[in-house]
Write a structure and sequence with these properties.
This protein is mainly alpha-helical. Among the domains are: about 85-155 and about 205-545, Orthogonal Bundle (Myeloperoxidase, subunit C), CATH 1.10.640; about 725-770 and about 820-1190, Haem peroxidase domain superfamily, animal type (Myeloperoxidase, subunit C, Orthogonal Bundle). It contains 37 helices and 18 strands. A two-stranded antiparallel sheet has the order 1-2. It has a two-stranded antiparallel sheet with strand order 3-4. A two-stranded antiparallel sheet has the order 5-6. β5 and β6 (about 370-375) form a beta hairpin. α15 crosses α16 and α36 packs across α37 (about 1185-1195). Residues about 1-55, about 585-610, about 695-700 and about 705-715 have low confidence and may be disordered. One of its GO terms (biological process) is response to oxidative stress.
């Protein structure tokens, strides 16, 4: 199936026109009057001169007429408005003239309403378990196209009416005031729906017939529009333009003929309005051109029709047909003047009504971002009350109705009161019969002959099994006398669907024949219209339905596949920016041609153009192409890790919110730009550009001059790759098993989980954002034996050595890995950093989320262990992480309960309690955790007693995130204690990632408090079995950490060590040989590194965790603790709301923050009878929880002072 939103890469070649992109919508080179005969005229006379018809055209007719005449110069009336439709085969009147068809045995065909109502009852018995991905936008677009081909009125009279009566107003009987212009439908007294309403009659008006040439032939219905796909229903026979050539638009941008047509829903009007707005959009731009050849309204009409035709044949039909049948249909024709452009009766009154079966009971309506579900028929009445963007947004997300016929369709169509309406399928069936269409099987054989299909004989109803399901066959056998009597309309129930499409085969075939004829007989079809200007052709390729939605609605994001529910979306601003870029580019060319470069407008535009040089344009197009490709892959299950795989959820992605994909696109643009420069420029020039040492230049794409041209000499290293990730990690784990020191620690796993909670608050846990959030992108096959065939830019699998000591035996050679999302939303020329998925402040952003959810009292809805919804939806996370952050969720609600009990409560309760909760959280970090990790010496040196500094940015460093910040991972143990109801169990670490609700929250916390960390080994639980389900196959956490380190471009360990030493004022040491590393590593570890690295300056920063130096009393390696000191000092000192200086905290809040700590939280919000006084130490002294609670109750009065 073709891509609904064209890749931007194909659009670069469209940038070659001469007079501003809209200014070159030229069709001619000389001015002329469209109604003036110029050149040789062509005169055509009808065969019966008594009728007196004649029509003339001039040979160089360059624009379409408004009634469709003169499209074919040899046959000027072909395709004209008001012509008769085409009978593909002779009609089946019973008397060959006008009497309705009868059954094979001469009996009447089944009564209309009775047949339809019974069929609806049969279909409603089906159990429908699927929802179509096709949306109602597709239905209304199809209806709009049909209206363009055949019109919406039933007949014409000297005096227009709102409809001729056939029934009494109450519907109880036929009206005494009935004319030949009406033919009411009978409703039986046993009708299940209408009988209780006493409705016995439904109005119907036959279609107007046409035989203007007085020929002796079967008289077909009249076409009330031109047959070509030319927006004739929008422009009408006499379009209303203003003096500038703009259409006079009404509701939703539609013209008066559309806005006043009945019956029409507001959605139909809004879709038509997109093309009305497109016309005027073109006029506004084309009229500013310095050279404007030809009438602007005609050039813009040609452009609008071209876009419309392109949407039909390149967006809509490929979706409806599916790729296989679309290719089989083969629209690659040329203009054929020997075939008449005409719509067939069979399509008009049978197969062209296929979309009516898709009408749902309700549709979505989304005004101002609010979603409502309203009855379908509401949208027919008082359309001005509806928001146009809201109606379009609603149908984009409303799936079509499938499997049966809705009551909105069968019983309540066009209802006002929601009860009494008409029957749309009955009207369709009446049209089919009034037009004398032959039976279904007759048309089936006719179409099969055209397509070369083998026909079937239908002697019995059982023979229909190739087309219909058993329930439909059984029903038809009770209603019709013979299978060859079945009405043509019921081809819409054909169960032979085209592969990959949404249409029954006979409907798809009929639609193919119709649209192929209309394309190939249209002299002005956009792909071969010789009068279209070069600019018009390029713009038609750029514009599609997605573009129209972006330009002419108020949607912030628009679907790339506008006919599918849940389509990935792209920012409207991005599309508008792209169109503006094209416009600016060609305006510049036009200015060069006319030498008119002194105007204020030209200067402004040229300055804008200077920002987009050759490399920028190339980068922009590549970036958008990748963004679209990524979203396409996010929708494809082949690219996503499956639910049955062990690492499902390990690389979770978050959804991109409205307008956020602009950030992603800008980042990708910068990334592509820098990669382009890396190839085009030397390393020296690129380094100076990134370091900001180049002078400002026109395109930002070169480095012609500089204040300081500097370039380091090439690194003396050989340039070979760094040690292979997994091989290095597995070797280090094996080394520590053999040579590592035997140590133990009094620190517990509770502290480790707490540190992970803090990191999640600082940087988040998801790896990136996509339009379609996933549980991980695939890089490897499900069995891990090789890379997957479905690897996208969103994944970068890790290779495993064949002789791997653990994975090698099981044949695993590939581990999934997803790079982090980058961030450079300002498109600055700099090294692009990874994106932070949470606010950098220590503010519990991972708990509260971007938009906190509070109840009417200000309390947070809490889930298992007290965690909020953003927490429970996060992966990967252990139940211990959830339980620890849940303590703060419970603290928030505890605070709310107490404030609500106060006699006076000023200000927002939820915000005051949020401030208190964050204050306690910050106090525990700086008052309990860091002193223990650092020891007195470093804690005092770190200088955390700072004041708020508004001049430093609050941000997390790449170094911390991908290096020292991952230090706690080496403390993970193979097993973690679980203490439930007095019983102690040691359970595998990785069990705690899944089935959180099966764990008792108090038991998990009690166990973590008594589980010592691992300090002398890298355990199997992280190195081989991380995130395992079965206890055998898992991932490698240190491998992921090392991949993060390298992907983020971190400099080597010794480089960062020198940077830290410069900051803290320590003397640096050179590392020319591996032996020089003796100040940091043991001799055995130095030997290990010498075996894997070429040079000591190559060692990855991640291995700062192996630093054997430490400050007195510290529980961390020196380089790691120094890095953490810098990080947490920055985050504290740049936080205006840090609890110790926040002036808006009440006195009660300040005091409560001082007395609330982890000991208090454990006493308040767990079922522990005793809680530790030192919660980060194993075997800490404990205090009775009830004593803690009793003390806290004694200071409850402070809650009223928060």
């Amino acid at each position: 199936m073709v891509q609904v939103y064209n890749a931007f890469t194909r659009r670069t070649r469209h940038l070659t026109v001469l007079c501003g992109i809209f200014a070159v919508l030229q069709l001619v080179e000389a001015e002329f009057d469209i109604y003036q005969l110029n050149g040789n005229s062509v005169t055509y006379y009808g065969y019966n001169k008594q009728c007196g018809f004649q029509h003339s055209c001039y040979g160089n007719h360059r624009y379409r007429s408004y009634d469709g005449s003169c499209n074919n110069l040899e046959h000027p009336t072909w395709g004209r408005r008001g012509n008769g439709l085409k009978y593909p085969i002779a009609p089946c009147y019973s008397d060959l003239v006008s009497k309705p068809a009868r059954s094979k045995n001469g009996a009447s065909l089944p009564q209309n309403r009775k047949l339809i109502a019974g069929l609806a009852d049969v279909l409603r018995k089906r159990q429908i378990n699927v929802t179509s991905k096709l949306n109602m936008c597709c239905v209304f677009m199809s209806e709009f196209i049909n209206s363009d081909m055949i019109g919406r009125a039933n007949s014409r009279t000297k005096r227009a009416t709102g409809g001729f009566r056939g029934c009494r107003a109450d519907g109880t009987d036929r009206s005494p005031f009935i004319t030949p212009l009406s033919n009411p439908l009978l409703v039986t007294s046993k009708d299940r729906y209408y009988a209780p309403l006493k409705v016995r009659c439904l109005n119907l008006s036959p279609q107007e017939k046409a035989n203007d040439k007085c020929e002796l032939k079967h008289v077909p219905e009249r076409n009330l529009q031109s047959s070509a796909l030319d927006l004739s229903s929008l422009y009408d026979s006499k379009p209303s333009y203003d003096d500038s050539g703009r259409l006079n638009l009404e509701l939703c941008g539609a013209t008066k003929p559309i806005a006043k047509s009945e019956p029409s829903t507001v959605q139909f009007i809004a879709i038509a309005g997109l093309f009305g707005k497109l016309h005027n959009y073109c006029v506004d731009r084309a009229s500013t051109c310095l050279q404007s050849p030809g009438p602007v309204q005609e050039r813009c009409r040609a452009f609008a029709i071209g876009v419309y035709q392109k949407i039909i044949f390149e967006q809509l039909l490929p979706v409806l047909f599916g790729e296989e049948f679309y290719n089989e249909c083969d629209f690659n024709c040329e203009y054929n003047p020997d075939v008449e452009s005409v719509v067939s009766m069979a399509y008009r009154n049978a197969y062209g009504r296929f979309q009516h079966t898709w009408i749902p009971e309700t549709m979505l309506y989304k005004p101002g971002g609010q979603t409502q579900s309203l009855p379908f028929n509401v949208f027919f009445h008082e359309p001005a009350q509806f928001d146009c963007t809201g109606t379009l947004d609603g149908i984009l997300e409303t799936p079509i109705h499938i499997g049966n016929l809705s009551r909105a369709n069968v019983d309540k169509f066009y209802t006002v009161d929601g009860t009494r309406g008409t029957c749309l399928p009955c009207i369709d069936l009446a049209r089919s019969r009034d037009s004398a269409l032959c039976p279904l099987v007759t048309y089936k054989h006719y179409i099969e002959k055209l397509f070369g299909d083998d026909p079937n004989c239908y002697d019995t109803f059982e023979d229909l099994s190739d087309m219909f399901s058993p329930d439909v066959i059984e029903y038809f056998s009770k209603q019709y006398e013979h299978p060859t009597d079945i009405d043509a309309l019921f081809g819409i129930l054909d169960r032979r669907f085209v592969l990959g499409g949404f249409l029954p085969r006979i409907v798809a075939q009929a639609t193919c024949l119709e649209f192929k004829r209309l394309k190939c007989t249209d002299r002005f079809f956009y792909t071969w219209n010789s009068y279209l200007g070069e600019g018009t052709r390029h713009l038609i390729k750029v514009f599609d339905f997605t573009t129209l939605l972006a330009l002419f609605t108020e949607l912030d994001v628009v679907p790339k596949q506008p006919f599918f529910v849940g389509s990935p979306r792209i920012a409207s601003k991005d599309i508008r920016d792209y169109i503006n870029i094209i416009y600016l580019k060609f305006w510049n060319i036009m200015l060069d041609m006319t030498n008119n470069v002194d105007t204020k407008q030209s200067v402004t535009m040229i300055k804008a153009l200077e920002l987009f040089g050759e490399y920028e344009k190339e980068a922009f197009i590549k970036a958008v192409a990748e963004l679209l490709s990524n979203e396409e892959k996010a929708q494809n299950s082949c690219y996503r890790i499956g639910q049955g795989e062990f690492d499902y959820g390990l690389f979770q992605t978050k959804p991109i919110k409205p307008n956020e994909d602009l950030d992603v696109r800008r980042t990708l643009t910068t990334d592509k730009f820098l990669k382009t420069l890396a190839k085009k420029l030397g390393k020296c020039e690129l380094k100076n550009l990134l370091d900001g040492k180049c002078y400002t230049n026109v395109t930002l794409s070169c480095c012609n001059g500089a204040e300081q041209i500097t370039c380091d000499p090439d690194n003396p290293k050989s340039g070979a790759p760094l040690p292979q990730n997994r091989k290095l990690v597995a070797g280090l784990a094996d080394f520590l098993d053999k040579y590592g020191p035997v140590t133990s620690s009094s620190l517990n796993m509770f502290m480790l989980f707490w540190m992970e909670v803090i990191n999640s608050d600082m940087i988040g846990r998801a790896h990136k954002r996509t339009q379609c959030p996933t549980q991980g992108f695939r890089g490897c096959r499900a069995d891990g034996r090789d890379r997957s065939a479905f690897v996208s830019m969103l994944s970068n699998p890790l290779r495993m050595p064949l002789d791997d000591p653990y994975y090698g035996e099981s044949g695993i050679s590939c581990l999934n890995f997803s790079p982090q999302e980058k961030a450079n939303d300002r498109c600055e020329i700099k090294h692009v950093a990874e994106r932070n998925m949470e606010s950098s402040y220590l503010d519990l952003s991972s708990l509260y989320g971007e938009t906190p959810n509070y109840d009417e009292k200000g309390k947070m809805p809490l889930y298992h262990c007290g965690a909020s919804e953003p927490v429970i939806r996060t992966a990967p996370t252990t139940v211990q992480n959830t339980a620890i952050i849940g303590l703060f969720g419970k603290l928030h609600n505890y605070c709310v309960d107490r404030i609500r009990s106060c006699p006076q409560s000023k200000g927002s309760v939820q915000e005051r309690c949020r401030a208190l909760t964050i204050g306690v959280y910050q106090k525990i970090i700086y008052g309990q955790l860091l002193p223990l990790l650092f020891g007195d010496e470093l804690y005092n040196l770190c200088g955390l007693d700072c004041e708020y500094n508004p001049y430093a940015e609050s941000t997390v460093s790449q170094t911390y995130k991908n290096g020292p910040g991952r230090y706690p991972h080496i403390w993970i143990t193979d097993e973690v204690m679980y203490k439930h109801k007095g019983k102690t169990e040691w359970r595998p670490f990785n069990e705690y990632f899944r089935n959180h609700e099966s764990f008792d929250c108090t038991a998990t916390l009690a166990g973590a408090l008594e589980t010592p960390i691992k300090t002398d080994r890298m355990v199997d639980a992280t190195v081989h079995k991380f995130y395992t389900v079965d206890g055998e196959r898992g991932s490698c956490l240190p491998c992921l950490d090392l991949a993060r380190n390298r992907d983020s471009g971190l400099c080597p360990l010794v480089t960062y060590k020198h940077f830290i030493e410069q900051i803290v004022g320590e003397e640096s040491k050179c590392y020319n040989t591996f032996e020089d590393l003796s100040d940091m590593f043991s001799p055995e570890l130095i030997k290990f590194f010498a075996q894997h690295y070429e040079y000591p300056g190559d060692i990855d920063l991640l291995f700062a965790s192996m630093d054997q130096r430490s400050y007195a009393g510290s529980n961390m390696p020196k380089l790691v603790s120094q890095s953490i000191c810098l990080e947490f000092k920055r985050l504290k000192c740049t936080d205006r709301f840090f609890y110790s200086w926040n002036p808006d905290l009440g006195e009660g809040a300040q005091y409560l923050i001082e007395i609330l700590d982890f000991t208090a939280l454990l006493a308040l919000f767990t079922d522990m009878e005793e809680v530790p006084l030192e919660p980060f130490l194993v075997d800490s002294a404990k205090v009775a929880a009830k004593d803690v609670r009793k003390y806290l109750e004694s200071v409850d009065y402070l809650s009223c002072q928060i």
